[in-house]
Specification:
There is one protein chain. The protein is elongated. By secondary structure, the protein is of the alpha+beta class. Strands 1, 2, 3, 4, 5 and 8 form a six-stranded mixed β-sheet that branches. A four-stranded antiparallel β-sheet has the order 9-12-13-14, with no helix packed on it. A two-stranded antiparallel ribbon has the order 6-7. Helix content is 34%, strand content 17%. It contains eleven helices and 14 strands. It folds into three domains: 125 residues, no CATH class; 162 residues, Nucleotidyltransferase, domain 5, CATH 3.30.420; 53 residues, no CATH class.
Amino acid sequence: MGQKIEFILIVESGKKVNFSNLCNRFRISRKTGYKWLNRYKKGGIKELPDKSRRPRNSPHRYRKEIEKYVVDLRKDEMEWGPKKLRRILLRDREKGTYPFEIVPCRNTIGRMIKRNGLTDPILSEQSKPCQHFEYDEPNDLWQIDFKGYFSMLNQSSCHPFVILDDHSRFNIGLYACSDQKNNTVKMHLIEAFEKYGLPDRILSDNGSPWGSCKQEIEYSFRSFSEIEKWLIRLSIKPIHGRPYHPQTQGKEERFNRTFKLEVLRRNNFKDIDHCQDCFNMWRDKYNCIRPHESLNLDVPASHYSPSLRSYPSVLPTVEYDDSYTVRKVMNKGVISFKGIEYKVGSGFIGDYVGIKPTNRDGDYEVFFCNQLIRTIRK
């Protein structure tokens, strides 16, 4: 059901979407895609499932029954405030699953949950408005991060890997991983790329495996990780937040806090598979059901559309035009240029880099694909 809703919301988002490509990424036929879309257009989301689980047998407008409905919804989602709860009630009424005619206002809902002892004073104090910055379009920037690992009942650790679209807050991927190794990250990024296409940029912190905390101090340039090199080959620009400034990835940090409150604190996980099952269920709720404050209480899926750049089955070749002087990176990560050896990083051993002059006499820039690696002086 979560996949159906996500598919419909992306199609109806108003963004430019290739329908056949979208169906392929969701691993459904065009016939199935049109069937879901036609059902939705006939009667909305309520036509997608076989039966609604919401009660439909309360025709009267009794205050106590409305309050019980609100209280039950709040007990299911203790972190959702009055604004989110009211948006859910309005959405339920549109779908025909809300059994009353009147939807209480936000302040009334707030009094209901307070009257029933369901408020947390600390969380209420922390819920203050703040300013946000976002990229203009979906897939302009993805943010990636590992949420802090935790222990499972089988005594092993789970490392949640999060991929978030900056513009829409849409959760591209939420993966339960047993480690934080390069191969694990690459496998899940490929899974995300195959379904949602390639972003223009990916923002991460400076740590392993996607960044390199070490700087080439002796040569005054920073080294590149294996993951960064792979992203550059895909024409994805890797960028990093300032060291020791997690607020650079504010949306990712905010997502992690919500994820901790609504998932990690509520469950005792048996193993990785149990984690992934719970992550998948909550991801559908986060993307397609849970109203988002910074999106004017819309859901993230209604603001997201997949990238038009598909993931290639074969990495594109590294090519440079005639404005570059091409050199192969030799052992120890060095190149020879005008009779002098320059270090460009051991991660590029065996690859070809392009060198071109700058506006400053005697200075040259070294590129791998379209990524500037370092500047050298003759």
